[in-house]
Design a protein that fits this description.
Elements lengths: L8 E5 L4 H12 L3 E6 L2 H15 L3 E5 L5 H14 L5 E4 L14 H29 L2 E6 L12 H20 L5 E8 L6 H5 L4 H6 L6 H11 L6 E4 L1 H12 L1 H7 L1 H4 L3
Parallel strand pairs: 1-2, 1-4, 2-3, 4-5, 5-6, 6-7
Helix pairs in contact: 1-8, 3-4, 4-5, 9-10
Length: about 260
């Protein structure tokens, strides 16, 4: 529960599964008005009914493919007509593919950047003017520990998340002192449908074992920090410590962690 969210409007992308769905449930539980965006229109409508009935909150749902800029731009007037203010944007939509540079196609790479980076930027630009005008708001960008440590077979995915981190850091400095907060979330691997796309063989998940992070724990931490001036949320702590060491001693960490890095 986060009492700061009562009566506030929260936009969540990628809302129909995994982390996005868990964030939506906890925001509704806290009394927030929800604006849910995802590709699966049928599941969106089901979530809209279930969350509205269960928590007696307002829920709007918009189906869109965030890989297509024209569909993103078509959302804006619809959201503006139905939403007086936006208090929090959670840029959660994203996907990854675990393929080597040799094997990944440019179409796959472009789609990953379209969803993970460009859609995030477009939605941020959409909500930012109103947040600056009202001198309050919170933009939360879901990045990844992969944005801090790139590993084999994740070059493009890591590049998208590194881009998200750089964009988030720059935006945070741009809006400093305006009342708008900007947070990057860097989770490790979570037990979600992400890996059904990223690694259909299931090998990587099987090798991760105890490093898998419960998605409920990540969602709870994110919602608990909403509307607070939080720079980053990093889960799990040991993986974030490894990222910090890698920034200082990259060759050493890559040598010591070689076995873990090649688990995909």
């Amino acid at each position: 529960m986060n009492d700061r969210l009562r009566g506030k409007t929260v936009i969540i992308t990628g809302a129909t599964g995994g982390l996005g769905e868990q964030i939506a449930v906890r925001c509704a539980e806290s009394g927030a008005r929800l604006v849910l965006i995802a590709r699966n229109g049928e599941k969106l409508e089901r979530m809209k009914r279930e969350l509205g009935d269960r928590f007696s909150v307002s829920v709007s749902a918009y189906a869109a493919d965030l890989a297509r800029r024209e569909e993103i731009e078509a959302l804006f007037p619809k959201i503006e007509r139905e939403t007086e203010t936006v208090d929090c944007l959670v840029n959660n939509a994203g996907f990854g593919l675990f393929k080597t540079t040799q094997d990944i196609t440019m179409e796959e790479a472009e789609n990953m950047f379209a969803v993970n980076v460009f859609a995030l930027m477009a939605l941020t630009k959409f909500v930012l003017p109103a947040m600056l005008k009202q001198r309050s708001g919170h933009i939360i960008n879901i990045a990844s520990q992969a944005g801090k440590i790139a590993t084999p077979k994740a070059g493009v995915y890591a590049a998208t998340k590194s881009a998200v981190l750089s964009f988030t850091d720059s935006l945070r400095m741009e809006v400093k002192g305006t009342g708008v907060f900007v947070t990057a979330v860097n989770p490790g691997p979570m037990a979600t449908r992400f890996f059904q796309t990223a690694d259909p063989s299931g090998t990587y998940v099987a090798n991760l074992g105890r490093w898998i992070v419960p998605v409920e724990k990540v969602a709870e931490k994110i919602v608990g920090r909403m509307l607070t001036d939080t720079r980053e949320i990093n889960i799990p702590v040991p993986m974030n410590l490894a990222a910090k060491l890698h920034a200082l001693f990259p060759s050493l960490v890559e040598r010591v962690g070689k076995k873990a890095f090649y688990k995909k």
